[in-house]
Amino acid sequence: MSQSIAVLGAGLSGLRCAALLHEEGFDVQVYEKADRIGGRMMTDKVDGFLLDHGFHVMQSAYPTSKRAFDFEKLEAQAFEPGAVVVQHKKGKAKFWRLADPFRRPVQGLAGGLNGFASPFDLLRVARLREFVRRGKTEQVFSGDDKETSIMLRKRGFSQSMIDRFFHPLFSGIFLENDLRTNERMFRFVFRMMSEGDMVLPKDGIAAAPRFLADVLGDERIHLNTDAEVLDEQTLRIAGQDKTFDAIVHAYNPRRTESKRHVWTLHFGASKSPFSSNHIMLNGDVKTQNQLIAHIAVPSDVQPSYAPNGRSLVTVTIVGETAEALGLTSAEEVLDVATKELRSWFGSDVDGWKNLAIQHIEHALPEVGAGTALSGLPSTTEKSFECGDHTVHGSVEGALLSAEKTSQRIIEAFASN
Question: Which stretches does DSSP call E strand in 32-184?
Fold first, then answer.
């Protein structure tokens, strides 16, 4: 008779852990409080648009994602490597297209000559890329663990380059306004961005947890279920006690302690404001105390994100930035964001329909300087616990912790 395992939480980590154990012959049951799977990786359908909960992408270079997902089956499509940066110059919006010179050499050369950054900063970017790609991936989690901002200055980047490029890009990734995130996390993300693509599944970001659930089988996933832990082998579910050989805690018990939050605004537009499939960074967000960190048009990459003849525009606003500007309500955030959008794209913005204003609290765990960030799951009080909070806040962290936890369970029962 196979051992019975209960997994508490149907987010990415819980589903991956459960799927791996199921494939090894364990009797696995997943219990989820919410009415659907996915945790933070959810997608709503509104007026024919696919609206992810927050701006999400999958990274094709993540080692765990390569093992967990079939990007071809997900029909994933990639953003162009690089970015567009917008700034106001002499009262007008100016756009710089910065292509990845290593993967788009012609466009990259043109971008290097457009005057956005000095030749010295461009050389430093190339050296940083070479530095983070050196050796095995796990090596980025060794060495210094200071704040990202300190590391960038130490590597000689001008304050202008940090404020206009690194800040809008990585504040929107790390969801904090100071680039205080541990430099090890920055080195990992920068390496993954240089080695792979940012991709979107055809059916929205919810397709990722759905892919894992299909491996497990819906009959083993119990939604709208509050499971009370009596001990490490007993749950109370709907007034009945159930015993298992092991219980996996696939949720963050300290989630509410995280202060990293994000506002995501989704707009339906008659046409895309972009001429290329890049993400657009707001180069003024730090220096001019503006609100928006970056903008993407997911439907340019995946037409399924919008109805025929329409475009989906997704705006990312770091919660701490909104707080610093005294904006606390959805109406205030929408009003200021719309004004910034209009300053870049003109009166076309007046025809955009606001589809959703999402405020996602406790979106990422805090990973500051000096954090024990090794790239491997940390020791927890629970016998078996997984989630990105035990590694670092990313899809990689969630999947890696799931793989390590499932392996510990397999080994524990193999030795009995």
Answer: 43-46, 49-52, 58-59, 77-78, 82-89, 92-99
